[in-house]
Amino acid sequence: MRRKSGLILLALAVFFAALSPLLRWYAFPRLAKVPANQYTTMVLEAKDATLLDYDSIQAVKVPKVTIVQTLKGNVEASEKIERTAGRDVVVWDGLSYVQGPDGKTVSKIPERYIFDAHTQDPVHATGEMVDGAPVKREGIEFKWPFLVEKRDYEYFDAQARVTAPIHYKGTQTFRGLSVYYFEQTIPWTKIPFPRYMPVKGITAEAVAASGTTRWYTTVRKFWVEPVTGAPVRAEEIHQEELRGGRLLSGREKVTAFSGHVKMREDYIDSTVALVKSQRVLVLLLTSYLPWGFLTLGVLLLALALYLEARGRRPADPAPTRTSAPEPVNA
């Protein structure tokens, strides 16, 4: 009976020990993915910023500029691309628009971002664009991969439409989470005018034809929760200038926008709460269950060996009975 129980425990020990690496290295890369129908909104603000007044073509100080970013999963487009790509694909239709202190839209730039649902690597397909212009992204954008490493990554800048390194700067604690801090600097770069212009009758083509050019630089900062790869805090020190041409009436340059852009506090709170719940699901597949199953397998193996050892122990000899001495008669 002991030997039979030991064999059952041994089989269970092998099963759980084998299940541990399977969960981590086989199941996790296939199960952890960004949902195709995800919809997110992020609101950022730049207080005491500088903004271009298009009526006078003068830079003016404003109390606040608001930037709203929306990312909406396009399920129909992702399913269409998956049929030819042969892997799980996410298509995000994004829109970034800037509002002045009066609530009027200053600019808006649409994007279509296509990437692998598991690795977050870009997937090149028809429809990939920024502001209506086709692009071929290299590197990540918006979201890091699951299980972020302490190293530099390639990050796509939608304004300049270039990919540049974003550098790992260290580990910090933010709102009770251990996060990785990344920073990217885009030097002054000539960029196209947005298709949407805030003044009726003025087009991007007309401004470009005047000889005026648009330039941009930024220092981009992200605090990323490494398990989920989700940024929980984002900032940009953002500057734009118009340079030369007839539009500036002989002036060398005019500031179009300058400000320290930060995530609004209520969106930081909601993002941190969501990330804290999601990271538990990722840790189940990468840490809690694999290590738990491995530990259980070791314990079951030890118990099986113990029962086997007891089964092999020789039985104690039976005690010998001594008869009472016969009485002696005279």
From TrEMBL:
It holds the Pfam family PorA. Keywords: Membrane, Transmembrane, Transmembrane helix. The chain crosses the membrane at residues 288-307. This is DUF3068 domain-containing protein. It comes from Streptomyces sp. SID12501.
